[in-house]
Amino acid sequence: MLSVCRTKIYFRYFPTLSPRECHSTSTIFIRKNKPLKDPLSAFRWQGFKLEEYLIGQPIGKGCSAAVYEAAIPLSSNYQSSEDSKPLEGKSPDPQWDHGSVIQAAEAKPIQTNPQRAAFPLAIKMMWNISAGSSSEAILSTMRQELVPASGSALSGEYGAVACHRRPVFGKKRLEPHPNIIQVIRAFTSSVPLLPGAYVDYPDVLPLSLNPSGIGHSRTLFLVMKNYPCTLRQYLSERNSDAHLSTLMILQLLEGVDHLVRHGISHRDLKSDNILVELDSAGCPWLVITDFGCCLADENIGLRLPFTSWYVDRGGNGCLMAPEVVTAIPGPGVLIDYSKADAWAVGAIAYEILGLCNPFYGQGRSSLESRSYQEDQLPALPDTVPFDVKRVVKMLLQRDPNKRLSARVAANVLHLSLWGENILVPKSLNLDKMTGWLLHQSAATLLMDGLVDRSRVETKMKTCFLANLEYEDLWEAAFLLLSWRNHSV
């Protein structure tokens, strides 16, 4: 009965498909396109001080930070553990300093971590070498890390009253999205001595902890949800079928499109910077993280003035889009990042589809984004759906003008996954497209209300309907039909 009523509502308000109706449909779903529940939602005024957390074992480290599992002891999720101790502002017991703890943690199977339920949070401690020790300088220097921060994440720095908060210099505000990490707490604090510090990152410790250290005594801490593994770890342990692989690529495209809509480019997309958990049906849920290299300047948007070689073009040179890596600095030169992350998704798709990333290899099999030609790209397995093969190929076009945008590429996969009945004829039918959208809208509303909201497929359909635009939808549909007609 509920499904019938909602279908009648949609036919009443959206009898034909037009730009106006597309906008009306997307407006309904925008408010439903939210991330999962904040693990600290029950502790609204807690978690803004490092001393409130129980710090567990290392999760991993990169070139600018270390990440640890964490919990707030008063949380119902917390269970005492002999392997973790509360942070007390002093050097921990020498037994804590396990030299190979990170490597050991990475070697564990994805679903066999008995401590994860006890530590629902992850704390990222930035290494502060050049920002100084004042909170204002730290927040300004590391502002890119704050791009995915929630509206209340910095309340501990600026006070609980919203009017007393000051903006972080030049930082764009990114609305929450299911496929983007959300920083739920951000604060500055003195650098503690954490497990593995002397072995894994002794040089960046402050003098008070290491006489040879070059780090400052205070730094930035970011609190996020604790995810089981990275995409690289997930793919190394299991082979996904064609449907799940398509859903994973689709999630990355939805996340990148969300960034582009907010004038942000990640600029360091790779399987190590994508986190994974499983939804209630066992489908991998992907979340883009680590925004330290992102372009998020409110004054320039996605077009970066490239006046000298000293301008930062982003991280991960192997997956740097051709238009970025081949740019030559000069007066008036701009690098357009609007499709750079979409190109990186095309490269990562090879990993998701069970092959080596062609831009990571060695020897003759290795390609360089600076010089490769499209016909050098490795063929994808026969088990990969035809539409997915075409999307990956179009994402890896050297010329950004010929490359698919993340939005159109995502729409192609949405139509391929859910809209087969409207693609059977050789020409598009407006009435069928309208009916299909109405059916998808009603079904998604019903599923969102009655089924576990952590289901990836439901969230992806919500993303599609929330970002529905007339031109992008028809471009995707015509592309699909033209590919299929030419393949016959």
UniProtKB/TrEMBL annotation:
GO MF entries: ATP binding; C3HC4-type RING finger domain binding; magnesium ion binding; protease binding; protein kinase B binding; protein serine kinase activity; protein serine/threonine kinase activity; protein-containing complex binding
Protein's UniProt keywords contain Membrane: yes
PROSITE patterns recorded: PROTEIN_KINASE_DOM (PS50011), PROTEIN_KINASE_ST (PS00108)
Compartments, record wording: Cytoplasm, Cytosol; Mitochondrion inner membrane; Mitochondrion outer membrane
Cofactor(s) listed: Mg(2+)
Annotated keywords: ATP-binding, Autophagy, Cytoplasm, Kinase, Magnesium, Membrane, Metal-binding, Mitochondrion, Mitochondrion inner membrane, Mitochondrion outer membrane, Nucleotide-binding, Phosphoprotein, Serine/threonine-protein kinase, Transferase, Transit peptide, Transmembrane, Transmembrane helix
Record carries keyword Cell cycle: no
Broadest EC class assigned to this enzyme: transferase
Pfam families recorded: Pkinase
Reaction equations catalysed: L-seryl-[protein] + ATP = O-phospho-L-seryl-[protein] + ADP + H(+); L-threonyl-[protein] + ATP = O-phospho-L-threonyl-[protein] + ADP + H(+)
Protein name: Serine/threonine-protein kinase PINK1, mitochondrial
